[in-house]
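Notes to self after the call with IL:
- keep both proteins in one doc
- input above output, always
- annotate only the second one for now

Protein 1:
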Amino acid sequence: MRRSERLIRVTQALMEHPSQVCSLSEWAARWEAAKSSLSEDVTLIRQVVEEDGSGQVETFPGAAGGIVFRAQVPLAQQQAFVAAMAERLSDASRILAGGFLYMSDVLGESDVLDLVGRWFASVYANSRVNVVVTVETKGIPLAVATARYLHVPVVIARREHRLTDGPAVSLHYVSGSERRIQTMSISRRAMPEQARALIVDDFMRAGATVKAVSTLLNEFRAQVVGTAVFMTTREPAKKLIDEYFSLFTLEDLQEGEWVKVRPSREVQIG
């Protein structure tokens, strides 16, 4: 096999399996190549992806070692995305009754989901996340995209318990946006042992839903290592959770007149 072809195959294997340990021995057997040659290929790929900010390649020595690719979003791509998306979402025609913002079209686009999932995963790449948790239904696509780049399962906190989920733990809480009592439940079988959970959601106002998810996860003795949200509101300034990462902030809106969305402080770049 020519080196050019081998480089393509190695790069493809890493990109298609983010956050997964790839075995150098398996590659050597599959492609009939020397480990030393593959190591040189990995070194070259590492230099390229780290220079352009598209990811990091880690090598773990020893019999149980291997190579792991952790995807990132290059700075130029971050800048272009947040600028274009903030402008797109600052459209008065998106305002819904009750002071909500229509985002379903945006969060249904595969390119947006892939980029945001990559971004969320890169922020929490070193947090040893082993499960991504979200609430049905709008947060599910974002959670799945994030989980793919972290190579972990997704657990969904459901509004209504399903018999097919088996035994579950349920919680009643007061919704911050709708001001009414709601219920969420998580299947006991869904949660991994010694869970280190990343909560992912599409929108957060006061943080009541995320707080409820955190409380529910406590019943599983799970540790919440972070919260990633596509958009938060400027008010209330004091949220019910202390730490979170969001891409956009809904500054304010006047129903039927105007709306202002800006990149959140965490992503002020350039």
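Protein 2 (the one to annotate):
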Amino acid sequence: MQEEWNVWLEWLSEHAELQMLVASAALVFAAWLANWVVKRILVRGLYKVLRHARETELQDFGIIRRLSNIVPALVLSIGVNAVPGLPEAAMTVVRNVCGGFIVLTIALALGALLDIINMMYQRRADAHVHPIKGYLQVIKIVIYAIATILVIATLIDRSPLILLSGLGAMAAVLLLIFQDTILSLVASVQISSNDIIRVGDWIEMPQLNADGDVIDIALHTVKVQNWDKTITNIPTKRFISDSFKNWRGMQQSGGRRIMRSLYLDQQSVHFLDTEECEYLHRFNLLDDYLTDKRREIDDWNAKLEKRGKEPVNTRRITNIGSFRAYVEHYLRSHGGIHQTMTLMVRQLSPTPDGLPLEIYCFTNTVAWTQYEAIQSDIFDHLLAILPEFGLRVFQHPSGSDVRDWRDSLRQPGAPALQQPKEHPAEKRS
């Protein structure tokens, strides 16, 4: 057997080209076998040794699989010298390509490692406060830039210093190309150091049609998921140069503001007579208010002496003032209103659409659906209870209102339109 093998080698040595082809095929087979052994045996064995969570991470990002590709490249780079009869130029090309491939593989593996670091950091409870994704992306850019220089230098078989020496003249061009990256890096540092936005913050930027939660903060963009489930990508630098609203303070305070007005018909505002006051004493929320208010007004009117006999000179209780007091007491007894935050009921300047009675308070929850339910419940009650005070909500007449009024005038026996009563001041004039 040994003699046959020696004969075959002697015959092969007499045919240089065939020997070179056989050696090349053997080298390629050895590289394939090394790749198979590493991926099928070593890598799988390593996955089994590692914990399940860590195994999933490494498989997802492929860091070990990428590093395993270095083995066949090393086999080719080292074994090419043993191929007899191979031209020197071909050997140089194979070594350079394998060297460039190894550099590229290491760079991609380092990028995957940075992704794993970012994923593990996001598991921390305070990861949304100080995200590091932007910084890791900068490190990736540096790694890929260095890898690009090394790959080019390896392929052309020149020193990397030759390429680096030419970068000085290209500095202005590089600054122009990477100006967005530099601005985004500065913005990311300011956002992180000043705690401007976090993942999970509700932000509002009307000029970019963004209104929703921040779901990702990267080097170049910040992703915002709007309330209609669309995604808006905002350049990171815009959060430094443009104004926006961050609702984090509201979410952390535990209360969300209600600032809404009831528009009352000003013609329904009047003084309350004795019968109406007694009628309003039925309200538990108004009993103490009416008693104290009546005592205060009686003390005031008692100081007027003879002039107090004229109703125009006296103070009297109004239906709108009683309703305003009722609303305030109602809010202070409502279980959905935050009692330690600002709470007031006030009149705003009259408008052509009526007299605004503004309710200003805070709910004791920041959840959207619960907030809207509490607000609707309050105004449902106020709109329904309003006629008890002799007040009306202002509303522009619709076509049906005009039609009903016209039909009522056409009915037999309908009362004639009454002329408005003449004001006492007009009689004297």
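Annotation: Residues 75 and 254 are 64 Å apart (CA to CA). The chain has a mean pLDDT of 80.
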